[in-house]
Amino acid sequence: MPDATPSRSLPLAGASNFRDLGGYTGQDGRQVAWRRIFRSDHLASLTPDDRARLAALGIARTVDFRGEQERAQLAYLLPEVEHHQLAIEPTVVQRAIELQRSGRALTSQDAVELMQETYRGFVHENAPRFAEFFRILLAKDAPLVFHCTAGKDRTGFAAALILLALGVPRDVVMRDYLLTNELYRRPAMAAGHAPEEVLAVLWRVQREFLDTALQKVDQDYGGHETYLTEVLGLDAPARSELSRRYLQGK
Questions:
Q1: Which of 50, 73, 78, 148 could bridge to 65 as Cys pair (CB 3.0-4.6 Å)?
Q2: Nearest by Cα to 24 from 154, 131, 206, 179
Q3: Where is the signal peptide (predicted)?
Q4: Are 24 and 31 contacting, i.e. CB atoms less than 8 angstroms apart?
């Protein structure tokens, strides 16, 4: 008997954090559609077999949240795929360097605070990119993969927004976010640039990071529903269309 449930994680030789957002229970008990929206780390190291697998999945669009220098260092091109660049420049590394230049020895707590500051920035400073992301999702329903470099922070917040907009409960959203810690393989080049206790924070995710962003949303907007509507432009017709495209049933 064939397995009726697709696999969430799709192991690829050139990307360790590639996975499907489908299968979660959302609004009105409807399930997020499988094989429509994928999240990933960067796609610059995909092998020919990996590329063939993405083609077999029907992926026709990518959304790249990486900054300009990140894209230049790890460039990729997937023929026949529509590419969207929504640059959110990384700030954690630059802030860490500034602290080190001031003579401060970085600690794991410093790293946590830097990450939390980054997530607060997602809510306000980077809102236009996330609003545009939803416009891309609503433009057509061809399968799409969105990513940044590690597929954990910018991508993690974007995934949380999608799932919340589709009515997935916050505790489930958090579980999806934390899956990165089971899947993502830290690049070897990251070693040696900071103490291991700091790297262990910067190259993983923690509940506190996403909680910081969602608490900021709650504090400033009274909840994610108002944020989605007033800041990201998901009015009632847009929410209805999003549900029609990406929730199964009814």
A1: 148
A2: 179
A3: none
A4: yes
Instruction: Give the Cα separation of 52 and 132 in Å (integer).
Output: 28
One digit per residue, the tens of pLDDT, for the chain of length 250 reads 345 688 999 999 999 999 999 999 999 999 999 999 999 999 999 999 999 999 999 999 999 999 999 999 999 999 999 999 999 998 876 676 676 667 667 889 989 999 999 999 999 999 999 999 999 999 998 999 999 999 999 999 999 999 999 999 999 999 999 999 999 998 876 555 678 898 899 899 999 999 999 999 999 999 999 999 999 999 999 999 999 999 997 6
Q: Judge whether 117 lies within some domain.
A: yes
Asked if residue 26 belongs to a domain, the reply is yes
Torsions phi, psi for 63 (to 5 deg): -125, 120
Q: Is 148 a catalytic residue?
A: yes
Domain count, the chain: 1
Query: What domain range includes position 70?
Result: 19-244
Q: From CA 31, how far away is CA 246, in angstroms rounded?
A: 9
What sign does the dihedral 238-244-248-249 (CA atoms) show?
positive
φ and ψ at 12, to 5 degrees? -120, 150
| 234 is a domain residue | yes
Angle between helices 108-123 and 154-165 (to 10 degrees): 50
Query: Annotated catalytic residue: which of 148, 164, 242, 247?
Result: 148
Helix (H) or strand (E) holding 64: strand 61-64
